[in-house]
Amino acid sequence: MFNTQVALAAFSLSLSQIVGIGPQNAFVIRQGIGHSHVLPIILICIVCDLLLIAAGVFGMGSMVLSIPGFLPLVTWTGAVFILWLGIKAFHSACKPATLRTEGGSVRDRGEVIRTLLAVTLLNPYVWLDTVILIGSLSAAYGTEARLSFLAGSSTASVLWFVAIGVFSMKLAPLFRQERSWRVLDVMVGILMVMTAASLIQQHGLQYL
């Protein structure tokens, strides 16, 4: 039986975990401003998030933690990849030739999908917050409330990614000047470097 109270609690919890400009959201916003493959990006984000949420709700968190070397591998691989994205953003900001109406947004569909999957699945925060944390909290409501919890969490994910995809496209007129793209690139670069450093400090160093 559907439990509205559980669904609303799950909605609030999931939204609190998703909201925030991390590597994935920064990539979505940049591509949205450049009007580059926005619909596939939104769909991929939603599908990945729903699969990870479902994995957590149905008890996959403990299994993830039990895989030898999984979190260290994801942490260090993710940190290096995110740091590379930061360096790439700084490089784009320093080269006027790369600053067009669509900015430095990725235009190749294959590269868009690969990059998006990487910033999603190679980010250990995604596994820790979505699969493990949300999965653990959902268990408090009991197995009979799983579907209600999953429905609430899924709704939050769908609404968030649709919202930032549409919102970023609305920002496109503001980015007709090269200076706007420079500012965005610098901000993204700083965000990526800070995220990579945080990953290494909070999670990576403990595996050395």
From TrEMBL:
<dbReference type="Pfam" id="PF01810">
    <property type="entry name" value="LysE"/>
</dbReference>
<keyword id="KW-0472">Membrane</keyword>
<dbReference type="InterPro" id="IPR001123">
    <property type="entry name" value="LeuE-type"/>
</dbReference>
<dbReference type="GO" id="GO:0005886">
    <property type="term" value="C:plasma membrane"/>
</dbReference>
<feature type="transmembrane region" description="Helical">
    <location>
        <begin position="41"/>
        <end position="67"/>
    </location>
</feature>
<keyword id="KW-1003">Cell membrane</keyword>
<protein>
    <submittedName>
        <fullName>L-lysine exporter family protein LysE/ArgO</fullName>
    </submittedName>
</protein>
<keyword id="KW-1133">Transmembrane helix</keyword>
<feature type="transmembrane region" description="Helical">
    <location>
        <begin position="73"/>
        <end position="94"/>
    </location>
</feature>
<feature type="transmembrane region" description="Helical">
    <location>
        <begin position="181"/>
        <end position="200"/>
    </location>
</feature>
<keyword id="KW-0812">Transmembrane</keyword>
<feature type="transmembrane region" description="Helical">
    <location>
        <begin position="115"/>
        <end position="141"/>
    </location>
</feature>
<feature type="transmembrane region" description="Helical">
    <location>
        <begin position="147"/>
        <end position="169"/>
    </location>
</feature>
<dbReference type="GO" id="GO:0015171">
    <property type="term" value="F:amino acid transmembrane transporter activity"/>
</dbReference>
